[in-house]
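Appendix B. Extra example for self-study. Work through it before the problem class; the solution is given directly after the inputs so you can check yourself.
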Amino acid sequence: MRRLTGVVGVAAGLALLLSSCGDGKSSGGSGDAGSKSEVIGIAADPLEYINPLNDNGTAGIGVSMAIFAPLVTTDPETGKLQNVMADSVTPDQNSQTWTIKLKPGNTFQNGQALTAKDYVDSWNLTAEGSNGWKNNGFFSKVEGYDAMNPPAPDGATPKPTSVKALSGLKQVDNLTFTVKLKVPFSQFGLTLQYYGLAPLPEEVRKNPDAYKRKPIGNGPYKLAADWNAGDDLKLTKWDGYKGPTIPQADQITYRFIPNADTAYNEFLAGNLDFVDVPSTKVKSFKTDAPDQWVTSVSSGANYLVIPAWDARFKNPKLRYAISAAIDRKAFADLVGLSEPAKGLIAPDIAGYRDDACKYCDFDAAKAKQLLQEAGGFSGVLNINYNTTSATGQIYAEAIGNMLRQNLGVQVKYTGKQGSEITELADTRKLDGLRFSGWGHDYPSIEDYLTPMFKSNGDANFAGYANPALDALLAKGDAEPDPDKAIAVYQQAEDIALEDLPLIPLYTKSNAYLHSAKIAPRVSKYVGVSALWATFK
Amino acid sequence: MLRRVLAAVPIGVIVTLGVFALVFAMPGDPLRELAGDKPIPAAVLAAKRAQYHLDDPFIVQYLLSMKDILTGHFGTTFAGADIADQLRLRIPVTLKLASMGLVFQWIAGLLFGLYAGFRRNGTVDRMLLLATLVVLAVPGLVLYFTGQYLLGVELKWLPVSGIRDGWPLSYLLPAVCIGITGFAGLARLTRTSIVDTANADFVKTARAKGLGEQRILWRHVLPNALLPVVTLMGIDLAGIFGGAVLAESIFNLPGLGQFMFQAIKLKEGGVVVLLSTLAFLMFIVINLIVDVVYGAIDPRVRNV
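Solution. Structure tokens for the complete assembly:
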């Protein structure tokens, strides 16, 4: 037996040797009793850098909300815009040139005064395509964007350009700058609450890479400790922030846990103060954590996408038939925490109408009749689903069964990676239906209609185009009166609902768990936030 | 031995080229995968494609990757992570997890296998049969989450996930899980091998010559019975990297397996090839070790 123990001994010795390296990390815990601290679980891969201008993901922007402050924000009580860094945001008569005045006396966390130049230079840096920053697209509405980012045909490398600044951005004085847009856009003021437009101080702008793990912000929190790859992100309150709504917590720890089910278990074990409920736990979270959960009103809207490039779907009556064949109540119950969709926008958006969609009521007999009037459907109806989503196949089969039973069509299912589905749709090669969802970047009916239904819109998954709708969007964009603008946008929504390139399915709420120590902020207008939680 | 190391070079080229080709052939655009459903402006896409050489022909991309690996200029992932940083963080995590998992797996496998082999058809033997059947039938995912829930969430004996509690506490639960899912094969092989050897002609001859039972066991049965077992243990060692992917993902351990998973998800050819090369080098080293151990157990193979 001697030789045998030798082998095991070597392995055990190796393990012991390795153990001497140690991890050197102590538990974050919940801190002292007196100090208000919370540990927020984020079910995502750990962040690699913090630069809100180069980030548009939920995790990165979520963390930026603590470290940076926006120009304006939505008041969680009233839903109205409220100034944060801005003193005023004023459009000209046709909403094309916007003047932004900053409040005096604000600084960055390194002590540098916050000026109009910081916005102009940070935004120009982002608008420079060769930097490859993710919020570059935001500036495509600003005059001069095309000179900085010469359009190139798909797949071709854009020509290099020496233009380093947007001609539409002008610094007026130390605290004032103007933004001239390519065309009028009445909703521009709302878009300024996006954290991806945060200013970077001069030392960061000079060498952004050197600061990717030590951000210098202008928000309520700053880094509390060195932050290296694999570490939790520890933040502490920064006294220099003078914004309108200062969060209560003195210390915040963000812990990244890529597996959402594991993050949920960490909460149940008492190691987190806040976590999202993953889609796999939608049916059980209320019993798993009684009295420790909240839900949001809505996180956006979800659709079934009809490919405009497939001639078999051309007849509108066929699209109505598909829509009427879907039992939305049953499907929303399957998804959980969801309501049947009644229009194209989320129910928490100003301008939402409960009766917008004429073809969204389940009626099997009518669906069959519409299909007959449309001349039937030729071939097999394919439903594409995302294989990286835990529920993709289940949802596809649920919809497929409804279409099979209520319309008598043959159905098949194709699982693909999400990026492959998007790529096929972009190149107009996707065969059949797919799912899509949209959550707004700023709370406006326009942020549903423009990306998804405008010709060549950024998120126009269906390849849909209707000049009448485009004209109404442009009219709404040029309308300075908010209520009148909404009425015009609603006309555009009616056209989209008549053409039905996307079939509304459901609107989903999100659920969150929170420890007994905190009460997260729940707002009809801005959703649920752990950052602005109230401590008990 | 030098000859064998040299022979590994062309195999290494073929393996890395093959892995790179597989990643290259995967459907979908890595930059789109990174962006999710968000639209990416053409200018950003072009800048990123140029930065990561995504528009170069396959063989150029492969050679650039190999150059980076050989010169130690690892660069960053598509998500912006410094790859050298990641390796420094992740290699110790995976080594700790894998070695601890293997120790559990080997101890359990050998102990049960030896005992069941010598006392065949006894209670332990029957229990082992049942236990290995259960282990082979229950998916790892179920076992891992059940272990996490029972020992981490309900009983609070061990950390639920992460490495904040350091070694060995943070690694105990995932390593036990790896041990449980892996021990069955080794135990069954050890048992069968002992039974076969004990019934072999040369053992009968030894017994007929009047050798003592202890001497027969230690000098004749065990060395011969353990040869296939050592081979399997070598394969286990090389394969533990694959087993770590699941454990690291569920227990949120920032190891190489989790890194590999993210890289494959994002179709990040360079990282996948880098990690495959590491795994390949480990495989070569382990094979050499197995050969040395072989020689120690069985003098006949020493000069082969």
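Self-check: Chain B touches chain A through 75 residues (CB under 8 Å). If your reasoning did not lead you there, revisit section 3.
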